[in-house]
Amino acid sequence: MHVLVVGPSVATENPTQALLILGHTVSDCHEGAGDECVALRGKPCPLDASPVDVVVADQGSETARCARLRHLPVVSDDLPATPAETEAELFAATTTLPGHTAAASEGVSQALADAGCGLEGVKVSVTRRHGGLLARVVSYDPMGASLRQRISVRVLAEVRAFDRWAKSIDAVIMEAHESAPAAPNPLLKSLPFEITSKRWPSRSTLSVDTTSKGAR
Q1: Is 113 helix (H, G, I), strand (E, B) or coil?
Q2: Phi, psi torsion values for 111, nearest 5 degrees
Q3: 208 vs 133: CA distance, rounded Å
Q4: 2-86 has which CATH code?
Q5: Cα–Cα distance measured from residue 6 to residue 36, given in angstroms and rounded to the nearest whole number
Q6: What is the pLDDT of residues 74-108, one digit of tens each?
Q7: Strand partners, 127
Q8: Portions of the chain given CATH number 3.30.70
Q9: Sequence-separated (6 or more) residues with CB below 8 Å from residue 48
Q10: CA distance 51 to 5
């Protein structure tokens, strides 16, 4: 994932090297000591220029405030001692997006109401990925192509209304087996079943890119 670090103003030892070792892409927010905003000095804001997934900063810093304004998760710069603990904290921050998930859930509810149908056991989650958002909707019940498309459109509209800063939004609508065991993939650990291969739409079909003409 892409991690933005507050540079030399970080309270503890700069975590950039550890994050790079873990395989993350890392950007710095400040070029010198202190917390002076680079955008106020006429330079591009890293939050706008980079596809940031999570910010590592002092929770009271200007960077943290700007990140929260953009609905980006903020992890304290006092990172855990071990790489495994650091990775777990970053994973939790980017997969626990209650505001985005609530917006996506509202989109699902609207789509079902419009279609005049109800589905039992629908699971909705939104996670950060490559500077954008991935909304997953999983249902125990089979869904036709028309309903899956309705849900996709509504979910994208509601999530975009909640977060106008996201570089892109993808919606994946999936069906699940009721009796299947828990998914082994940790990225799907909140979904207590295996995912089938039926999806609507493809990953890129309904992406919303704000870098071109803005939100749609």
Answers
A1: helix
A2: -65, -40
A3: 10
A4: 3.40.50
A5: 11
A6: 988 787 767 888 888 888 898 879 999 999 999 99
A7: 134
A8: 98-200
A9: 39
A10: 13
